[in-house]
Write a structure and sequence with these properties.
- The chain is an alpha/beta fold.
- Helix content is about 25%, strand content about 25%.
- The chain is built from eight helices and 13 strands.
- Strands 1, 2, 3, 4, 5, 6, 8, 11 and 13 form a nine-stranded mixed sheet that branches. The chain has a two-stranded antiparallel ribbon with strand order 7-12. Strands 9-10 form a two-stranded antiparallel ribbon.
- Helix 2 links the parallel strand 2 and strand 3.
- The chain is globular, with a radius of gyration of 19 Å.
- The model has no long low-confidence stretch (mean pLDDT about 90).
Amino acid sequence: MKISGFTFIRNGAILGYPFVASIRSLLPLCDEIIVNVPRSTDDTLEQVRAINDPKIRILETEWDESMRSAGLALSHHTNLALDQCTGDWRVYIQGDEVLHEDSIPAIRAAMERELDHSEVEGLLVDYTHFYGSFWTEVYSFGWYYREVRVIRRNSTIRSCGDAQGFRTTAHQKLRVKDSGGRYFHYGYALEPSVAHRKLSNLSTLYGGQPSAEKQAQRPVRFYDDDQKVKPFQGTHPAVMRDIVAAADWTYTSRNPLIRFRREYFWEDIALLFKRCTGLTLGVHKNYRLVK
C-alpha cells in the first residue's frame, strides 16, 4: 500500500499559515508528498525547499489572477497536486491544518482495512478548530467537525469549489468511512494583525475586495467577541509546539458558552442537543457515510 500526501500553499509566510508544520505532520504517514507552490510574493517556496525531505516533490505553478470567483483557484491548485499523486490513498491537507501524530496509527489501519473495498471512496478525519488563540477551541453551531481528507486513487474524484471537500466528476458526494484521524485547524488562531491580513486576502478569492464597512465592524482585537469557545485541554501536534509556545496573544469570549439571546436561539438549542446526545446539527456534509 502506497500513501501520497498532497497540498498547495501560496504566500503562506506572509499570511501566517503554519504550512511547514502542516507538511511535516504528513511525513510519518506518507511515502510521498506533493506540494504545489504557485508563484508567491514571499519566501514560501524557499521554506518548503528547506524542509529538505526526499519524500517531498515540489510543483512550481503559475497563479491565475483571473480565477477570482467562489474560491475556485483553491480547488484548481489542489487538483494540480492531486494529479501528481501515485499512491493507493491520497491524503489532503490544507496549509492551516496539522495532522496530530497520535492519530496516525488509526488512519493507517483504516487505509489497510478499506484498501480492497472499492465502494469506500474516501475517509473522514475529525477536526479541532481553534479560534482566537491556540488555547481556545470552537464549540459552536455551523462549523464542520468532520471532513473528507483521504481519498482513493480514482481519476473521477476531484477537489471542488473552494477546496472544502471532494466530489466525483458527476458531482456526487463520496461514499466514506471514518479514519480515526484528527486534524487541528489553526486558520482562526492567528495573531490578530495576521488574521486581518489573511481575511483581506481570502476576500479577493471570492470575487471581490474586502468590505471597508465589514472590516470596520470587527473588534479592535479582530476576533468576534461572542464566538462560542471552550478552553483547549489537549496536546498540540509535536510539529506545532514551538509555534504555540512562542504565541503571546490570548482570546476570551465575552459571553458564556450558552447565550440565550434571540439571535442565537437555534444555535443554542443545537449546542444543548450536542451536549446531551453528542450529535451535531446544522452542518452541511460533503460526503455520504457508509457502514
